[in-house]
Design brief:
Layout (H helix, E strand, L loop, with lengths): L2 H15 L4 H7 L4 H10 L4 H10 L4 H11 L3 E3 L2 H9 L1 H11 L4 H7 L4 H13 L3 E4 L3 E4 L1 E6 L5 H14 L20 H24 L23 H4 L7
């Protein structure tokens, strides 16, 4: 995909996220809707027009180009070898999580008990695994997409289920829930699909916010965990009360 096409594709996604239609854009920019559609169809943006559209999105051109850079094709799922290598070395897994979240080299060694030499070695291993591109001066470019997924049934998914999710649902003393909500019901298939689409959208928006916040210093960002889940389920307490049909 060309850079212009990638910019156009990114703008379309951002407009969709904010529910900005071509008709609304035309009204805001004092243009015909047909002209707006033509611009997006042909990717014929002038810098001035692109800047105007960015203003509607509450973005600067620099913000947009930063998002475009992050949107370049990245790994959406690790290989079995990559997952096994990460799980075999908890410190390597830790640094992999840090670089995915946009930590700088100095922030990693300041926040965690990892010295400069070891951190360089760990980054080199991530480069060898093709999880990052290691650049001069201990800089890097992450090759992992924000919304990447574990291999179904793979070693990291098992680790997440056994070590992370169980402990996530049982906070330590004095660890408050920022938000917690449980809802159950009986839904039609069409309603289930609507809920799933909305959860997918929230996941993408959360991933995008994580990208945007990477420009902030570490002291202005807070570790947060968010678990979204939906599956056919009924509490065993209720299941045990079901009438047995003859």
């Amino acid at each position: 995909m060309s850079q212009i096409a990638l910019v156009a594709s990114t703008v379309k996604k951002l407009l969709k996220q904010q529910q900005l239609t071509y008709k609304l854009i035309a009204e805001k920019l004092d243009m015909s809707e047909a002209n707006v559609k033509r611009i997006f169809s042909n990717n014929s943006f002038t810098l001035e027009r692109l800047e105007q559209i960015c203003e509607l999105l509450n973005l600067s051109l620099a913000d947009l180009f930063s998002i475009v850079q992050q949107q370049k094709v990245k790994i959406s799922q690790l290989t079995h070898e990559q997952e096994q290598q990460l799980l075999a070395n908890p410190r390597l897994l830790l640094v992999a999580v840090c670089v995915r979240d946009g930590w700088k080299f100095d922030e990693i060694i300041e926040y965690y008990d990892i010295d400069q030499f070891e951190c360089i070695q760990l980054l080199a291993k991530l480069d060898k695994l093709r999880i990052i591109d290691l650049l001069p001066n201990n800089l890097y470019r992450s090759l992992i997409a924000q919304d990447f997924k574990w291999i179904p049934g793979g070693v990291l998914e098992q680790f997440m289920q056994q070590e992370v999710m169980v402990k996530f649902m049982a906070p330590k003393q004095n660890e408050p829930w920022t938000f917690r909500f449980y809802l159950r019901g009986r839904y039609s298939q069409s309603s289930i699909e609507i809920i799933q689409r909305k959860l997918d959208q929230l996941t993408r928006e959360a991933a995008q916010l994580n990208i945007e916040d990477q420009s902030l210093s570490l002291d202005k960002r807070k570790h947060m965990g968010m678990l979204l889940a939906m599956r056919p389920w009924e509490p065993s307490l209720f299941e045990n009360m079901k009438r047995i049909k003859s």
